[in-house]
Design brief:
alpha/beta; 8-stranded mixed sheet; Rossmann fold; elongated; 15 strands; 2 domains
Amino acid sequence: MSPLTRRACGKFRDRRAVVGVLGLGYVGLPLALRFAQARFRVIGFDIDQEKIEKLRAGRSYINYISDATIRRGLKAGFVASADFSRAAEADALILCVPTPLNRAREPDLSFVVNTTRAIAPYLKRGQLVSLESTTWPGTTEEVVQPLIEAGGLRVGRDLFLVFSPERQDPGNARFDTRNIPKLVGGVTPDCLAVGQRLYAAAVDRVVPVSSTRVAEMAKLLENIHRAVNIGLVNELKMVADRMGIDLFEVIDAAATKPFGFVPYYPGPGLGGHCIPIDPFYLTWKAREFGVHTRFIELAGEINHRMPEWVVHKLTEALNARGQAVKGARILILGIAYKKNVDDLRESPSIELLEQLQKLGAHVEYSDPHIPVVPRLRRGTFDLKSVPLSAKTLGAYDAVLLATDHKAFNYALIARHAKLIVDTRGVYRKSRKNVVKA
């Protein structure tokens, strides 16, 4: 271990270091607050000035992070800034920026590249750079490393570079940034040593791996595992529906086996920043090696088709009542991609809304966590959440339960909705006004 490495490790161990977190979204903000809680001075960077102003005022823009938590972070030493020149103050710079797909469903690393370029002029000897954004194996060394070395500093000799994938689960009350084990892979052994020391100061368990590529691949495996299994149960849901079998009961029955089975539950499609997107990073990279990732692509195809299948089930249910979709008043319950969060990214509810609009239905939504949907991809008007009451529920021809928020009064919905199309298995007992989709 070099003297520079020992000094860097000592700074993180003794909490004399300044931690910079680039990107204050659903991953970066909780991470920044955790480091502040662990008694580090933290600079959170973001290009969104509105976010910066809210944080400086002690206000949160994420529903499961309270204003009080933000204020405690500010008091502990967290500051928010849009001035990337302050990267020179940090001893560690952690990139938590989006890695979406482009229109051709290929990896879009523009946020990673642009952010790395923004901090590159301010890099200094002894700094640690950590990439947390999910990406294809090789990104850290093939994309990030050349950018940070462009100024003459060398990874492993002058500064340190690691990949440590984010593992956030928004809204999970049991697991948070502190108690979710943290994978770390370094470009060199000294890089790994410094990365381990950084995260060990804020996370209960750090798991070192042999390379950045292993850490990058591990993150993709985690998400591909979920995408493939969700695709499986979504396909089985369609089969079970035709057979007149309740798949939710089947899954619960199978889950009584104490080994060899992990329950996954179907829904109206996949949403969020990870599961619908990340598997295709490996699919894209695998082509470079002449490999066709058939399982991944098939699961993606099935999950992508689920909103269409739900709309078909809703159409059948309306037809059985002598009504067409065109002109029907439909209320979607839950516009967020998963329950109890305020995140719209890749939400299948948006796809459901747009498909029903296209068929001529009058569609509105109710979501206690998202009061306004300001812009739809192909929609022609803004929407605001409809408050639920006996009167409002009874005014719709159908209620489509897309996201099963705990805040919904399901008994009220069951009593007053004319027709409920349930995609989440909330209503397990047979009801005349419930159709399972």
